[in-house]
Write a structure and sequence with these properties.
The protein is α+β, with helices and mostly antiparallel strands. It folds into 2 domains: 105 residues, Alpha-Beta Plaits; 89 residues. The strands form 2 sheets. It has a 4-stranded antiparallel β-sheet, with helices on one face. Strand 5 and strand 6 form a beta hairpin. The longest helix has 17 residues. The chain is elongated, with a radius of gyration of 20 Å. About 7% of the residues have low confidence.
Amino acid sequence: MRQYEVTFVVDPVLSGDEIKTAAKSYEDLLKNEGCSIVATDDLGLKTLAYPINRRNSGIYFTHEFTTETGAVVPKLELAMKRDERIMRFLTIKLDKYGVKYNDDKRNGRIGKKEAHVSKLAKDNEKLVIKDDLTRLEGIGPKIAQLLVTAGVNSYEKVSQADSDQLKDILAKGGSAYLSHDPGTWPEQAKLAAAKDWTKLDALQNKLRGGKVVGEEE
């Protein structure tokens, strides 16, 4: 029996239900091909090493499975290549050490979660990232974290914030953020909240660093 692990990144602009459906569809594909699912891990929203399709982050999932021959792997990878919901994927065959490592990790023998997680981070709703704010032109991972820390953790909240409010949040991050202009962020966020990606892309094509190209300082 062979054991594999496939890790894939789902587009974060999809709704929560669409993201779960995407992950479940590949679990079903594996089962339909006679594979046994060892474990499924929802790793959540993570920052990408480099932008993909204008996204700076994605929702990570991992399916670990066993199969008799491994013939399912090409079929699985072809399906993911054709799926617009999937931004990237990687399939690896696990040797006995990889199998043991994953089993030990799942059972808490290694890689224990940090015990000193801030209670505020666990209990305070404002620190939960509800939307991928880096989807907005002019907002990178560090600025997104500043916004989330300030309680502006969704497209809707960005759309409701005025320019002065956003500038105050940037100022708290230090002088390095004072050059950023949040003037278009609420407009972009309003389109993102409405999932009007066509209009958002059209608007963003006119922007550079969140500002309209050619706009006078």
